[in-house]
Specification:
Layout (H helix, E strand, L loop, with lengths): L1 E22 L5 H4 L18 E9 L7 E9 L22 E3 L3 E4 L4 E4 L7 H6 L14 E3 H8 L4 H10 L10 H9 L7 E11 L9 E7 L10 E10 L2 E23 L3 H28 L4 H32 L1
Parallel strand pairs: 8-11
Antiparallel strand pairs: 1-3, 1-11, 2-3, 4-7, 5-6, 8-9, 10-11
Length: about 325
């Protein structure tokens, strides 16, 4: 079973967008920059653009001495600037947020159902507990601090952890954070913006089912250097003075994936005897296969065949001698 949840740590907000004409985003210079109107084909739509080109080349209001194509679309276009700057977190307390994970599993073969909120836990305990892997009691607490999940997933420095909460692990490609980008390209293993929470049930039902308890593990799922980070866009639409408008939000954050696995077993005499019989049969078959390989395939098969014949002949002679000896004893008596 798999599930997921997303936690926003920072946002880029573009307010009061409406469908009209405006300049293309200056950050898309390689397809938006122009020198004259002939560089802006009317009706052209670029995959990374913000709208349909109108055929006009206009001056950029965001960068001096830059001319860009005019577009028709949701205007003004998005500016990828964090509200408090590139080195400040908008939602500073997100790492202290807690999440309660409820999980139920069933072992239908044994008619047993278990859940990660154990019967021994009281309401008062759940109000105050937090998951701690080094505690015999709190390692089963289903309440997790987001910051602890990141910490347990992989050891990171405080500086690297700060970048996670700023942009969900993504370095923005701007000159003001070029040092940050260089650092995280070469230290990619420290960046976490996609984290797995693994819940595993390993249960032996030869004992009381109360001993069937979950085990929590955390893993970093980010292992690439291209397209790092996790973000998505969503919009709030409204009407103002009869004009359809929207506020566009680009949300940075951390995606937590929850994976549940389990295995339960119990001793069964029927399965035991069947497995034992199968094992003994395989041992007998192994002897036959070895004889076939040694006597027919190997390079010294003639020598082995002769040794096998001599061995069989010796066993036959001993058997005859033993039978004759028993007959003589019987006659004598």
């Amino acid at each position: 079973m798999n599930s997921a949840f997303f936690v926003t740590t920072n946002v880029v907000i573009t307010k009061n967008q409406s469908q009209t004409t405006c300049e293309e985003d200056k950050d898309n210079k390689w397809h938006a920059s122009c020198k004259n109107d002939s560089d802006c084909t009317k009706g052209d739509v670029h995959m990374l653009g913000w709208g349909v080109k109108t055929g006009r080349c206009v001056n950029s209001s965001r960068e001096a001495e830059l001319r860009v194509c005019e577009i028709y679309g949701w205007c003004p276009t998005e500016q990828d600037i964090l509200p408090l700057g590139d080195d400040k977190v908008l939602m500073t307390r997100v790492k202290n947020f807690t999440v309660l994970i409820k999980n139920s599993v069933e072992f239908p073969k044994f008619g047993i159902k278990r859940r990660n909120i154990l019967d021994s836990m009281s309401k008062n305990y759940l109000r105050q507990c937090n998951y701690r892997p080094d505690s015999e009691v709190d390692k089963y607490c289903p309440i997790f601090k987001l910051g602890d999940i990141i910490k347990h997933g992989q050891a990171i420095s405080q500086e690297d952890a700060k970048q996670i909460w700023i942009t969900g692990g993504e370095c923005l490609l701007r000159s003001s954070v070029s040092v940050c980008c260089k650092r995280f390209v070469y230290k990619a293993k420290y960046v976490q913006c996609m984290v797995a929470i693994d819940i595993h049930w390993e249960c032996n039902f030869d004992y009381d089912e109360e001993f069937c308890k979950p085990e929590y593990k955390f893993r970093n799922l980010e292992d690439g250097q291209v397209g790092r980070g996790w973000n998505f866009r969503h919009a709030y639409h409204y009407v103002e003075d009869g004009i359809h408008k929207r506020t566009l939000v680009k949300a940075y954050g951390i995606q937590f994936f929850i994976s549940v696995t389990g295995r339960g077993g119990k001793f069964d005499i029927l399965n035991f005897t069947m497995n034992l019989g199968s094992g003994l049969a395989l041992l007998t078959l192994a002897t036959v296969l070895c004889d076939i390989i040694v006597l027919n395939i190997m390079r010294k098969r003639k020598k082995y065949r002769q040794a096998k014949i001599d061995k069989v002949g010796l066993l036959a002679a001993l058997t005859v001698a033993y039978e004759n000896s028993d007959s003589e004893k019987l006659t004598y008596m």
